[in-house]
Amino acid sequence: MVEIRRRRAGGPWTGRPVTGGPVDDEYDLICVGSGIGGCAAAAAAADAGARALVVERAQVVGGVTAVSGGQIWIPGNRWARALGMSDTAEEGARYIDGVAGGNNDPARTRALLGAADGALDLFTGRGLDLRVIRDLPDYYYPEAGHSAAEGRYLEPVPLPAGALGEWAGRLRRTAVWNMGAGTPGGGTADPELVTGQALAGYFVRAALDAGARLTAGTAVTRLRTRDGAVTGVVLADGREIVARSGVVLATGAYDRNPDLVRRFEGVLDDHGTGSPPGITGDHLGMAAPLGASIWSLPAARNTVQVGFPTGELDEDGTARYRTHWVVHPHEIIVNARGARFADESFYPAINAGLHQFDGASQRLPNWPAWLVFDHDLAERGVVQVDPERVVSAPSVEELARRAGIDADGLAATVAGYNEARARGRDDAFGRGERPWSLWMSRLATGTGDGNPTLGPIVRPPFHAARLARVQAGLGSAGLEVDTSARVLTWAGEPIPGLYAVGNATARNDMGFSAQSGTSNLRGMVQGYLAGRDAAR
Q1: Do residues 87 and 80 lie in contact, with contact meaning Cβ atoms separated by under 8 Å?
Q2: The pLDDT of residue 4 is above 50
Q3: How many helices (H) and strands (E) would you count in the chain?
């Protein structure tokens, strides 16, 4: 058996991690899933002296974390304080209280944010290195009380791939563009990991360095139970592994399960996901027979973006989708009437608009929806004019007829939007005026002045692409957990030996998912809490 380098808790990271040899038949804690939540739980348990195992069904590790933007949203964090920024966890909790629309439990919000410092103490001791993304404000700054102009968003400092040892080649690749300043190493002998890959890499390394074991390409099919308590897992090959202290479900959401998507996210046709294969709601299937409580947000409060299929296939043979953020000029989103219905530069507004329900007609008036743009945007390569997805025409009216959009409505909308562009302000929806949207648009366009999201739709040919709904590895529904990440029954009692973390859990701590970085926050902190509780 290969020896794993260990060190006392709180000391500096001491070396390059190794895999640790074959999987045994018994551990203290088994973590199902190798994203930030599973690896955080394993690292916290192993750091406290427990034997921990991370089981990943895919051949690669890192989960949804590796394909995320890599942000962690932490109010009052130490890196912001070092820059002289004044903020606290309580200020962050009050911000969430104000924007959650009554969907959060304030006690859970404060417990989550209040535990972030303890989690950071552990994981920075295991090598986690973060930095503030400068000038990036909260989504709802400045109109929401207790919002912050900057300091709450953290990103991982680029991590040399070689720091993962033999696991470097088995870290899931990311297609997400960088939100901060880090860039890939570009073919160097030891390239740098950035964004979600870096964040996942830090936590994989933390788990291995703490002494946890990690195995990939191994699926857990069900929980092992005795007298109502979870005592381990059963693998796809029938092998049973005992977990003396419990099992952590860190399996992500259910993007790849059409039945669960329809049940919890509403009936919107033509949808895909940017999450990796394997995100199929396994946590719900495993925990429900034990009486686990499943709690759900309204679907309009979840993070669902719009985009297109790429024409490529994922490793499981399903269509690969990509999101499209409408932060460039020369593009708008319209419904079948040809009308705009939201500030396109702010994706939570688009998602809420898609879920608006008209009681008189008993339909969703803003779905289906189309991206309408002119040839200026097409030439920039922002949207590929694929004839299988995009229709084109020499005039706006003809474009509408070919796309199945009301021609008079679209012509009036485009004319009104162009007039707004000439005035320099979108009076209808305030597009590009939100500081967060403006930051994102300037990053995407490289334009530093004015409102770069506004650009006229005047240059033919004109194009329309019917949009798909693209999920982001998040779900409206999840397992209800307590402040130690223990899964609760419908009666509010913990299921002995069962924990859940991150995207597998209900969002009644945040009350919504439209604040980037909160999912990684939840995975890290809940993993820390679960691992420490199990190791007691």
Answers
A1: yes
A2: no
A3: 15, 23
Q: Decide if pLDDT at 15 tops 60.
A: no
The mean of the pLDDT values for the chain is 91
pLDDT digits (tens, 9 = 90+) for 414-468: 999 999 999 999 999 999 999 999 999 999 888 888 899 999 999 999 999 999 9
The beta strands (E) that lie in 394-512 are given as 462-466, 468-471, 477-479, 486-488, 494-500
Question: What does the block give as tokens for 377?
Answer: 């945007």
Nearest in space to 318 (alpha carbons), one of 372, 261, 368, 371: 261
Token digits of residue 221: 């099919």
What digits encode the pLDDT tens for the residues 202-253? 999 999 999 999 999 999 999 999 999 999 999 999 999 999 999 999 999 9
Please tell me the distance from the alpha carbon of residue 39 to that of residue 487, in angstroms, as a whole number: 18
Q: Are 45 and 29 in contact (CB under 8 A)?
A: yes
Measured between alpha carbons, how far is 53 from 317 in angstroms, rounded to an integer?
29
Q: What is the DSSP string of 205-232?
A: HHHHHHT-EEEES--EEEEEEETTEEEE
Q: In a 10 Å sphere around its CB, with 0-12 CB exposed, 13-18 middle and 19+ buried, how is residue 287 labelled?
A: buried
Which of these, 315, 232, 319, lies nearest to 271 by C-alpha position? 319
Residue 88's SS3 state is coil
Count Cβ atoms below 10 Å from residue 312 Cβ, excluding itself: 9
* Token couple for 154: 């953290």
CA distance 43 to 52: 8
* 3-class SS of residue 462: strand
Distance CA 86, CA 88 (A): 7
Do the beta carbons of residue 255 and residue 469 sit within 8 Å? no
Respond yes or no on whether the N-terminal peptide bond of residue 142 is cis (omega within 30° of 0).
yes
Tokens of 437: 């949207």
Q: What is the dihedral of CA 234, 239, 244, 246, to 10 degrees?
A: -20
To which residue do tokens 């394993």 refer? 42
Per the structure block, which two tokens stand in for 259? 């039945």
- Rounded to whole angstroms, how far apart are CA atoms 28 and 232? 9
State both tokens at 64.
């949804």
Pairing relation of β-strands 331-335 and 369-373? Answer: antiparallel
Alpha-carbon distance 100 to 509, whole Å?
A: 10
* Residue at token pair 């743009």: 373
- The per-residue pLDDT for range 331-342, each reduced to its tens digit, is 999 999 999 999
Residues in the chain, how many?
Answer: 536
Q: Alpha carbon of 432 to those of 189, 252, 324, 351, 442: distances in Å?
A: 41, 32, 16, 17, 10
